[in-house]
Amino acid sequence: MYFWEFILRKKIKYMISSILFVIIFSYLAILFFIYFNQRNLLYHPSENNYLNEKANFVYEEVYIPSTENNLKGWFHKKNLTKNKTLVFFHGNAGSLENRIYKLNLIKDFDLNFLIIAYRGFSGNKGKPTEKGLYEDALSALKWLKNNHSIKDKDIIIYGESLGTSISIEVSQNKKYSGIILESPFTSMTDAAKHYYPYLPVSLLLKDKYDSIEKIKNINIPILVMHGKKDKIIPFEMGKKIFESANQPKFFYSPDNDDHMMNYDENLLKAIKSFLKKI
Questions:
Q1: 272 is a domain residue
Q2: How many Cβ atoms sit within 10 Å of the Cβ of residue 243?
Q3: In the chain, which end has fewer C-beta atoms inside a 10 angstrom radius, N or C?
Q4: How many domains does the chain contain in total?
Q5: Half-sphere exposure of 82 (CA within 13 A, CB side)
């Protein structure tokens, strides 16, 4: 009898060890996969939610030299002397065409605007990384200043989703006219923890986009816009960015907007009101 109990216990231990091995091996395999494929999971340049809207604004297609290649962009010029220039940094998915519905409305403001596509987006060569996207944004701003003599005080920075972190990075300790953040997040680490709470994302992440630490270095007027029903970036992150920002600051938080906010009359009023203050 003791012999069979011994055999049974040994089998149970073996089964438990085997199960633990499979669990640990699977977990490590997931970590391995995510670490080496994380940028493919983060950046989606080929994703298309283009609504087939036609641009009802006049623009010049420009190619701006960056550190690796030339960046495709659209430059809408009203009056470079009298009007301020808004520089639009888009989110982590899609092309320039995906933003036409916003630009069709932004063009009604007394603004010039420049929107660029990052490396790897809209047919641009290269692969997106945090460092690379910062370089692309700085290249766009440098191009505006060098080619069109636009001063910092006449530039408004606009960031959408991932573009909010890029906007915050390039606006630190600068004297731009103002900055607008649409659906911002505190950091990529926080966003990843929201989706993968069981993974050591702080150790895995290459591109951290730590906006919450950098927002304190923004000393220009700021408008934060975040929908309370955002299913991608929790509304609380946008609220935290606003609360951590320096004055003067303004917050637009509609009850029913998702991540891609409704470009409706209320949102446009919030932007227009902000523009009057800067």
A1: yes
A2: 11
A3: N
A4: 1
A5: 4
